[in-house]
Amino acid sequence: MTETRTQQSAFHVAEPEGTYPPTEEMLDTPVDPGLKKAREDRLRAAWKQPTGLRYWSAVNNSEVGAWYSLTAFAFMLAAGVLALLMRVQLAVPENDFLSAERFNQFFTMHGSAMMFLFAVPMFEAISILLLPAFLGARDMPFPRLSAYGFWSFLVGGIFVLSSVLFGIAPNSGWFMYPPLATEAEGPGSDIWLLGLSFIEVASIAAAVELIVGVVKCRPPGMRINLMPLYAWYVLVVGAMILFAFPPLIAGDFLFEMQRSFDWPFFDPERGGDPMLWQHLFWIFGHPEVYIVFLPSIAIAAMVIPTAARRPIVGYSWIVLSAVGTGFLSFGLWVHHMFTTGLPSLSLGFFSAASEAVVIPTGVQLFAFVATLMVGRVKMIAPMLWIAGAVAVFTAGGLTGVMLAIAPFNWQVHDTYFIVAHLHYTLFGGMIFPIVAGVYYFYPFITKKKMSEKLCRLSFWLTFTGFNICFLPMHLTGLIGMPRRVFTYSGDMGWNWLNLISTVGAFILASGILVFAWDLIRPKSRQPLTERNPWNGGTLEWAHDIPDPGWGVRAVPYVTSRYPLWDQPKFIERLDEGRFYLADAEEGLRETLVTSAVDAEPQHVARVTGPAWCTILAAAFTGGAFIFPTFHMYPPAIVCGVLAIASIIYWLWTSTAQVPKTPVKDVGLNLRLPTYVSGAKAPGWWGVFITMLGDATAFASLVFGIFFYWTARPDFPPQGTAHANLALVALAAVLFSASWAATRIARGINRQGKVTAARVLLGLAPLLAIAGAAALIFALRLPGLAPTEHVYPAMMWAMVVWVCAHVGAGVIMQGYCLAGSIFGKLTPRYDADLWNTTLFWHFLIITCLVTCALVGIVPRAMS
Amino acid sequence: MRPVRRALRDRTDSTGASIAQNSEPLRDDASRPSYLAQIPRRGVNVKPFRVSLLTILATGGCAGQQSVLDPAGRDAEVLATLFWWMLGGAVVLWILMNGILFYVSRAKEREFSRRTAELFIIGGGIVFPTVVLAVLLSYALSEMPRQRDLGSGLTVRVVGESWWWRVEYLPDGWDTPIVSANELRLPTGSRSEIKLAANGVIHSLWIPALGGKTDMIPGRETRMSLEPETPGDYRGQCTEFCGESHALMAFGAVVMEPEAFADWLDKQAQEAAPPTGTESIRGREVFAAEGCGGCHTVRGTPADGLVGPDLTHLADRRTLAAGVLPMTEAAMIDWLRDPEAIKPGVHMPAYGHLDDADLSALATYLLGLT
Amino acid sequence: MTRIEDKPDDPPPYRHRSIWHMIAAPVVWSLHFAGVYAWTALSCARFGGPDEARLGIALATAAALALIVVIGWRAWKQWDFLDDYDDVHDAPTTEHRREFLGHAGWLLSIISAIGVLFVAAPAFYIGSCL
Lengths: 862, 370, 130
Hints:
The complex is a heterotrimer.
Chain A: H1 2-8, E1 17-18, H2 24-28, H3 33-46, H4 61-91, H5 100-134, H6 143-162, H7 180-183, H8 188-216, H9 229-261, H10 274-308, H11 315-328, H12 344-356, H13 358-374, H14 381-403, H15 406-412, H16 416-446, H17 452-478, H18 495-520, H19 563-566, H20 570-576, E2 590-594, E3 601-606, H21 613-626, H22 633-654, E4 663-667, E5 670-673, H23 682-711, H24 725-750, H25 754-780, H26 790-821, H27 831-855, H28 857-861
Antiparallel strand pairs in A: 1-5, 2-3, 4-5
Helix pairs in contact in A: 4-5, 4-6, 4-18, 5-6, 5-8, 5-10, 6-8, 6-21, 8-9, 8-21, 8-23, 9-10, 9-11, 9-23, 10-13, 10-16, 11-13, 14-16, 14-17, 16-17, 17-18, 21-22, 23-26, 23-27, 24-25, 24-27, 25-26, 26-27
Chain B: H1 4-15, H2 34-37, H3 48-57, H4 74-107, H5 114-147, E1 155-161, E2 164-169, E3 178-181, E4 183-187, E5 192-198, E6 203-206, E7 214-216, E8 222-226, E9 232-238, E10 250-256, H6 258-269, H7 278-289, E11 319-320, E12 325-326, H8 329-337, H9 339-342, H10 356-367
Parallel strand pairs in B: 1-5, 4-10
Antiparallel strand pairs in B: 1-2, 2-3, 5-8, 6-7, 6-9, 9-10, 11-12
Chain C: H1 19-22, H2 24-45, H3 50-79, H4 81-84, H5 94-125
């Protein structure tokens, strides 16, 4: 394939050249001390952190990851305070400590914040912080994207949480079921929808980056069978986020159209159906549980081999477990809807899948125990939390087996039994392993150690408090107490159980506080930790103390799952800089890009440095989401435009820059291209993965149409007008022409026909805009009014979706045209055009499917 | 129109002949809530071992009336038994898993071989759960259609409102429903079909003593069926979050022998008894003057509002305000004076502007609607 | 000058170095799951009834299992366990990478087959759309 492309191109595209893999002899060649010092100085200069106020413009993973985790932890504490206040209210019957309205706001925010502001972001934060070190990479592939994600998260999180202080928080539950949530007065529901959509977008951004990180930024030699298990989990969880979050974004889109413009998607009076939201929400909501659980179990997979002082037993089994759980978790969503009156047959599928997922989930626990079996176990402090996690999680898993039995679920659904179950799974599957991970990785992150004494104290407080709080809740639920009640009558037999739970909640909180203190207490007078305090075998423990900021001294050549245990002279070679990219001659931040399966070196990626434009982009994106909450649309539009401008500035100035030299010597007799386009470039993968998520959101809208068709007899209503077929066909032709122009422009630009390519790139946006206009008029001419019935509303929703995407596609075409004119995009350096073409491949499918669904399918349905 | 009694008796004869013999000691008054003690008991009937279980958990009151572990219907009985089995299995498995974990990390004297460890993963991680789960799933799947079976006896339609229940009995042969509210009575000896709908937002109907819950969804009609076995007073509650006073949306669930039920339903089908005492008659005037009939129906009077609960046989019910207050005069006056204080967000306006005499008369009239 | 693209030790077929092939079995599980769910919803709500639903599930299940058996067999060959009884695959070689992908694909086939059978079980026990 490479050769054919070379023949077609008028310009030679650089390929890797030299020796690979390196020989032992090359790796043993000593480096002159003076040269070593000079290289280290240059590297240090390239990776220097900005100081003073400019510190906040930092984008590298160690800073952003730390901010991200601390912010998520702070949000968790805030949501925990809400829980304590609710426990006070429920401590005694008929209490009036909190009003019904306030209680409802609190439990809504407790759930929403724990899920959206803590559990998922915490995974992303920890992964951003640790993943490059696990992979011996200098940084994440798109540092500014991490920073953008973090600042978006911060703005959105503060916005959503602070609504509690003003008493205008959402109050319809974290699941926001319509019609309750669509009819709710005040901005609460909008705050939830827009604030959290904003954070969902940030989550997807992080997922894209993490997937690309795992696939393309592994060190040379780290084939897919040698990847640390954490990377496997990141890959699986990233893919899950990509397929789980978009349905919720699609749902949010429909929901907000109803809230803002009265399009009746969930209004049964006008053909809508509240059940569509439940489906979209739980298609997100159940994988979400595993999105939270798997990364935490991944931490256990890093800690346990160290404690057992043995390589993990059953590596393939754990991979099976992670991948299998990832798949099966998408077949469980209806077990949150067992009581909605769906046919028993349908419930049966979900009941069965919910039982089947127990198998892969269990396999990884058995693999951990098996590893401890063969090892000489040293009970290092984090292992205490891991053991606690297993104890708590197995209890939650076993009640999960019960809950998957649909008839039993009909009894205990929405009772305190569920509250107990979900907290057992989330504490056992998330909190305990995360705390274990913090104790384990703290020496790597801060080069200091946390206190072993406080570790044990906080563990026992948390563990006993947790069980005192949540174990009785199983019984509370079985003897009839529903969830989400702000009060209860004193003669139901629930009094003592509730009082015990409240006491337990405060003991639990004290445990978390001890941990928080241990985490943040000043440690400046404490000595630095030794380099590998737990004697781990994975790459992160090769870190430098104190932290020089460069991530890793040189990108190593890896031949084992546990290089520090198995590869002799590894540390020595690393410290000498006898691996790849040991220098920064041009003063640029660089990391190595390797092939997806066998990790063969392909490319030197220039990663971006400190910037303010990411913060601006995040702030303006925030404005674009937050202003509509209060129905302030003009400032929202201004913010949206400024956000796009900031992002374009950021892309233009720092991505796909034309390099000074096409090839660079990375050491060990290997020369790698400094610029690649197409499927070898991380940016192309970023676009590809993003568009998979985007396609999932679009598929959710398509699902909506078929859902209405099966669920509602009046979809489409008798005798309704349909879209103008001729205009729909015209739109399809125009979109196809625009797509073809873009694709051809890429080909002929490569051949050096720059002017022709520019003409096509100038024409393509006009065709696309004309197509969008034709599609809009196809609905306007027959007079389809979206507020009248869900059928025209759904048609308009599809068209709005397409138009928004065409807008993005047009901007990208314009960006490429400008790039060609101003020399950023040449026949040889054409990554932007490849990415734009890839975007358009997805877009043309979206457009053509929409044309079919708007023009043809409804006529066939009615 | 044929009498309800006949229709129900016919069915009982064919399906549940032995139910009537199932009489056991009555629960003593001390274990009932104070307001229930004032009501003549009919068929309160709780098996002794369940009382002992509950005394461990709680003291008196409604305890046990809303419990999965104190079943009084066929479905709930099956599920309670299933629960105890699953709990037993879960406890054993939990102890095994954590015992092994403790042993291998703390107590073992030598390392196991890799082969043993791998067999442990295969056996414990794949073979054992596949077998156990297949058995459990098969049982659950075969039980599911039984619990969703079509009712063969009475049909009742229940509509979830904010925050109360509209109840319509549709016995065979009747073309207009017998309307009631906030209390669901079901006969033993047959499976009753319950049709569910909702007005406004989603609710969920749950009577743990009888069986599982089903949601009530605006724009849809869902259904469930229940087969009560033990006559008695039970309690149900809304379990889908439905807004501000979700916590205060409960109802009485009364299971009766088919005979007694038929008598009761016959009486429900009748119009309201006209007031007799002077106080009561004055209460009716207050009721009319305040426009209560705009929202409430009292059959046999001009009051025919459909917004709020039907009040024709209000005083016959165990509770007031959807399972929140006892059916006493004091509670009634409190409710009329300021419903918002009792049930936040309630749609019923306050009648605090009435003087005590008027309120008392109104309460007397309403409590006379038996 | 060595072009590192050349890989003499990595003979075809492509699936021996493909993660996509590794996850083929669970993809079949997903398609089966989505298919039976959609088919049941349509049969119960739009046309036909439980019998059509159950027949469709039976056919889909047979097809899915057949596919998974094929995928599992190829993965088993790729794992090549009986050759060297290796199930660790921790060496930095093409052989170990190939065997690892085969091993994981084989395990995923087993779990997918169990998943397909579990998901089909309701059609065996439940004969109505209630």
